[in-house]
Amino acid sequence: MQVSMIVNGEQVSGEIEPRLLLVHFLRDHLGLTGTHWGCDTSNCGACVVWLDGEPVKSCTVLAATASGHEVRTVEGLEREDGELDPVQRGFTECHGLQCGFCTPGMLMTARWLLDRNPDPTDAEIREAISGQICRCTGYATIVRSIKWAAAYEAARREAATADASSNGSAS
Amino acid sequence: MTAVDFRPPGFENNDQKPIGYGRMLRKEDARFIRGKGRYVDDVRLPGMLHLAILRSPLAHARIVRIDTSAAEAHPKVRAVVTGAMLAERGLAWMPTLAGDVQAVLATDKVRFQGQEVAFVVAEDRYAARDALELIDVEYEPLDPVIDVRRALAPDAPVIRTDLEGKTDNHIFDWETGDAEETERAFASADVVVSQEIVYPRVHPAPLETCGAVADYDRVSGKLTLWSTTQAPHAHRTLYALVAGLPEHKIRVIAPDIGGGFGGKVPIYPGYVCAIVGSMLTGRPVKWVEDRSENLISTGFARDYIMRGEIAATRDGKILAIRTHVLADHGAFNAQAAPSKYPAGFFGVFTGSYDLQAAYAKVTAVYTNKAPGGVAYACSFRITEAVYLVERIVDRLADELGMDPVELRLKNLLKPEQFPYKTKTGWVYDSGNYEPTLRKAMEIAGYHELRKEQAERRARGELMGIGVSFFTEAVGAGPRKHMDILGLGMNDGCELRVHPTGKAVLRLSVQTQGQGHETTFAQIVAEELGIPPDDIEVVHGDTDQTPFGLGTYGSRSTPVSGAAAALVARRIRDKAKIIASGMLEVSVADLEWRKGAFHVKGDPTRAVTIQDIAMRAHGAGDLPEGLEGGLDAQICYNPENLTYPHGAYICVVDIDPGTAKVKVRRFVAVDDCGTRINPMIIEGQVHGGLADGVGMALMEMIAFDEDGNCLGASFMDYLLPTALEVPDWETGYTVTPSPHHPIGAKGIGESATVGSPPAIVNAVVDALKPFGIRHVDMPLTPSRVWEAMQGRPQPPI
């Protein structure tokens, strides 16, 4: 069957078997290997991507289901000018990854969380990533990484507000 | 503020950019945070086929007949292979790392549920899976041996009928220590405590399963194998021995590895199947197992039933420990441990204490379960050893009515006793234990916690405090004592400094997330003054790196870390001679300050390592007798293991209504000697602590009486998420290793080794009002509830 969807802002299409999983469409057909596959049963979250702005486990979504919709993967986090998303920086800054296998899914959930809750508590972060498994970090540094991104974005917002008000007074 | 450099308040000191040791952000992260890591399943080659393995649904059965005709007729199938076909090529069996043999594909019988029976190579992943359904296997079921306690019964079915003359399921008996001396110590003791302690079967379950891409070039005869391996060089040699391929025609590439924890040390049948598939079809073949395959067939860990006994005086002086272990090795003895150590390093079960005598006997048996036995960050069975001693010391404290901390403080080895030879022959290189335990108590607020516990207990609340103290033995060899299938446990390292003073370091060890690209660059930076960012670390490719046995048992820093420091020092020695020529002074008149040689007494006259590198490769004469270039290679043979230690304190609360255990706090104070990158060390500790929570409270690979694996998916094999673990509280002390060139000790497994007893000790402590003295892991709500009702149940 024919599917078409927007992936990381680009229109893509493909001729696929109806049973093809979204994770395999992304990895094997589009070559977007940043999304990983880890468990088959929606437990590990290595395959988390966004479908129409919501995190989903792409190992249990059919590519056909995603047809006509919008998908965002880890490859779509970095801005076109090469600036990293703050959650990407946060994970580097706070050692939020070791082997890197769970990282793309964690980043997608982290971005989703901060878009809805710019100043999450530790408990809210732990709740948000509780559908995902990391075998390396013991999670504390992931929590710190997401807090780093939140603090970074708060500081940037504050600076932008200050800039705007100083510009305003100058004009 | 610039977006790139800005750090929010509280995080300003995150990257200290050291030229040497210190907190430094990881070099490897750049690709992982962009989704640009390259794992085995990311490898795509032109014309690549996909392989899937048919596995046995039964634990023990005779194979009567296999019909592959329907699978072969599938339009997308390129090959279907059975054990009989491999047998014709002499490939049906392969050696295990423990010197046994294991079936690549079953020929005569299947011996565990999930055993490899046949494989299909097809045009895509889904078609390969489809074709498995078309293979018809007729089995004649046999009685399975599941309970390890019954494996040696005279009427137990014999599992390994393939071994000539084998009439039982016994693998080996291994002893250490002195039985008679230990008996005398027990006879003279005021107090003896005995306890059966089960360390259940668990699985390392790295998030990336095992897999391989085999590419055999029929023209050149060269095999390139991308595979999930922690030991690429050892694997290459074994493939040469198994497949009869010449070793120089085999290239093993370990790309990014999505976690290993010991599970990616053995050679699994799937790797061999991928190689055979590529040789048969002449095309690249990819095999990636799914999660169930990973959990039911690849290397499990533990599965030790330990009868432990401890003898002491009434005032709390520990005299002796002894134990008899029944070890379940599954259907094939495939554990990965040094050849002369069939029970791994279980011999360090004497722990961190000054004893008069010790004795252990380990009896290993075959059962109809998956093969393996050493994995999951266990330091070759030290996990089991530390759990045994730390549980039984707690049992003794309870018996004596002593505080478990006081009992440990009374018996810990003293700093002046090092190097200390244990009663089982291990020479602990260094240690200063009491400050480590005191520090953990201080961070935890131990005495206040005990007061709080008393108050809560009075209110009927179940709060527990658990302590453990461990000594690890990591960094195998030396080679005279330690080898794997005859390959000596030493590791190579090659360093080339380029003309502009940038460098490439080539390692035999293999990261699976430990951050080698950063840590090893820092080791060289410390020795040569070249910034870590100017040092490229190459690993995971047998064509590009010197020989060595790989990363497991926390070997990387103790063995290859030493190699990296020494190879850099060799470069520095040569650089010094070049510098003497450049500065026209004698070598004796030079002094090294990180990054440059200075003329003694005239610090303005100096040449940097970069200047020297250019001279080494440039025009003009070098001092007489010196070759050009600035390269060196060494193979490091460790003098001894390194012995990190640590003190852990865990606080738990148990819901009296549901018996659910909540880990409220966990304090870990580790001593791994010299600390290269504290951020990475802390990360290693954190990961191990989460493993400990998983093993203590959640994880078990259990079987029913027919041998069906009950932990065959992540819905059944429970791993901790962010909700089950606390925010770790860590601390450290520093006792450098006296024999390691930079004083560093391994850290990768300390927390996995040390944390389970702290958690179980805390739970048992919380349950004291119920008169409970021991509960076996995993301490799930149902098991704790049963224990609270007076019905403790050992796992099988």
TrEMBL record, chain A:
Q: Which UniProt keywords apply?
A: 2Fe-2S, Iron, Iron-sulfur, Metal-binding, Oxidoreductase
Q: Where does the source fall among the domains of life?
A: Bacteria
Q: Which GO terms describe its molecular function?
A: 2 iron, 2 sulfur cluster binding; metal ion binding; oxidoreductase activity
Residues forming the 2Fe-2S ferredoxin-type domain are: 1-77
The family database entries (Pfam families) matched by this protein are listed as:
Fer2, Fer2_2
- Which pathway does it serve? Alkaloid degradation; nicotine degradation
Protein name (record):
Carbon-monoxide dehydrogenase small subunit
